[in-house]
Write a structure and sequence with these properties.
elongated, about 40% helix, 17 helices, 17 strands
Length: about 500
């Protein structure tokens, strides 16, 4: 099943479409409050602090406060009011005994937990100073926090935090997860994210047509190139990898071995004679092609058996790497451009973009992204928007690597791969990812966007599987375990 990820604007639209269908906004708020209430501890509780804002998030908080009060739980409501209050928030505030509303809190140690109902997904500014003081005292007393929709202080679209934010043990959101539940830095403050049904029908997706999705195998598993009984090595794809010079061959070797593990029928590493002397003793299955003249590279790239080319890992930032990248784009449909092959074009990105296609895949990390696309795009806070804009500018698929990798295409489609694999931050990990993606894309294999999504998912799952002590070679050795899980639909 497709897992959509909603922007602030899309969630507002889903609410409005539901209201237009006949469910009142006050009923949605009541449903939201009840959904939060059922996720809260209610036994052996001393006292609860509810932080309520003036908007609909605060209205949800007043519903929760009323429900807690009805079962006899002692509570205080700290109401942050900027002089304007939404109609539905006022309606639910009026149902509360005014004695429960406090203007200041002298002793935070008496609270068993805090309910954060200050600001919802529409919050886009700095956390007010007075609330930063409250947040600081909550943190100092180590009080568990339960957030309604998103932790207050997070920009729901960009997931950026301007000021302070509470660390939550649980976030209860409604209908569907939002961007900040997947993107850092906001994600790390959400804790466990629970999605509750409040009466919004999934049918709204048919009209909304959200462009952002969560990366999971259901998106691309039907396109995955599992081998058939009649396959041979070239029907499974010949991947050509441009190797680096002497003493810089390790990256290409990692990419080549990972490609073979994922399912490339054959891998050919192209290099000069000196590099071949280093590569040959270290590899067992990859084919080496020693290249002396430029026309020899053209002959290799023109080979009809070649399904894809990877350029960049360990290649060096020089004119030769640039030339081979452009040759690859000229002769082969499916090209993956990584690492040095990206940085080669930082002084003249248009030289690259004029030759890329919607099925070309670029796999930059943040530094390479900034060098290639410049400050105007790289400084966009919203990582999804940043990646989509880069994809449109380059006319190609962008895999912006990180703990929340974004895959985007020029049509504005985006997939977030939110991983819990910090140990992937190690030398050679990116080379393995490039090899995996390059092995999946090609004629009779996966389309470029699906290959980028599948490769990123496999890579992150390997990181989660291996965990502490991970080095790049571990990723390669464990690829068969992940492929087997995919084959058995055990994911």
């Amino acid at each position: 099943m497709t897992e959509y990820i909603l922007s602030n604007e899309e969630m507002t639209l889903a609410d409005q479409m539901t209201i237009d269908s006949g469910i009142t906004s006050i009923q949605l708020m009541e449903n939201a409050g009840k959904a939060v209430f059922k996720n809260l501890p209610t036994k052996n509780i001393n006292r609860v602090l509810v932080l309520a804002g003036p908007g609909n998030n605060g209205g949800d908080g007043f519903v929760v406060a009323r429900l807690l009060n009805e079962i006899g739980i002692s509570l205080d409501i700290y109401f942050y009011n900027e002089g304007k209050i939404s109609k539905d928030c006022q309606t639910n505030k009026d149902k509360i005994d005014t004695k429960l509303i406090v203007n200041e809190i002298n002793d935070f140690s008496k609270y068993s937990y805090v309910i954060d109902a200050l600001f919802g997904t529409g919050f886009t500014r700095q956390t007010p100073d007075i609330l930063e003081i409250v947040f600081s005292k909550i943190k100092k007393n180590k009080i568990p926090v339960y957030s309604i929709d998103i932790p207050s202080g997070i920009n729901g679209n960009s997931s950026m935090i301007d000021g302070d934010c509470l660390q939550c043990v649980k976030t209860i959101t409604f209908f569907n997860k939002k961007k900040c539940h997947y993107l850092y830095p906001g994600k790390e403050f959400c804790g466990e994210v629970i999605v509750e049904d409040i009466g919004i029908k999934k049918d709204v997706f048919k009209i909304m047509k959200p462009k952002i999705k969560n990366n999971n195998p259901e998106l691309w598993i039907k396109d995955f190139p599992f081998p058939g009984s009649t396959d041979h090595k070239y029907s499974r794809g010949l991947l050509v990898i441009n190797s680096g010079p002497l003493y810089k061959t390790g990256a290409a070797r990692l990419a080549g071995r990972s490609a073979m593990r994922v399912g490339a029928g054959a891998v050919k590493l192209i290099c000069d004679e000196d590099a071949a002397k280093v590569l040959e003793p270290q590899i067992s299955v990859e084919l080496i092609s020693v290249v002396k003249e430029k026309n020899e590279i053209q002959q290799i790239f023109k080979d009809k058996k070649v399904s894809s080319i990877l350029v960049g890992p360990g290649n060096g930032i020089n004119d030769e790497t640039k030339s081979r990248t452009l040759l690859a784009l000229a002769f082969v449909k499916h090209v993956v451009i990584d690492a040095d092959a990206i940085t080669c074009f930082e002084k003249n990105p248009k030289e690259l973009f004029i030759d890329t296609y919607p099925h070309t895949i670029l796999t930059p990390h943040e530094g390479e992204f900034r060098r290639l696309f410049g400050e105007e795009i790289a400084s966009i806070d919203d990582k999804v928007v940043r990646t989509v804009e880069a994809s449109k500018l380059s006319g190609s698929i962008i895999v912006l690597k990180g703990s929340d990798t974004i895959i985007a295409d020029p049509d504005g489609n985006a997939v977030i791969n939110s991983s819990e694999a910090p140990y992937l931050a190690t030398a050679g990990s990116g080379d393995v990812l490039a090899g995996i993606i390059a092995s999946l894309v090609g004629e009779n294999k996966m389309n470029a966007f699906n290959a980028a999504c599948a490769g990123t998912w496999i890579h992150s799952k390997l990181g989660e599987l291996i965990g502490p002590g991970l080095i790049a070679e571990d990723l390669i050795d464990n690829i068969p375990l992940i492929i087997k899980k995919l084959h058995n639909h055990d994911y």
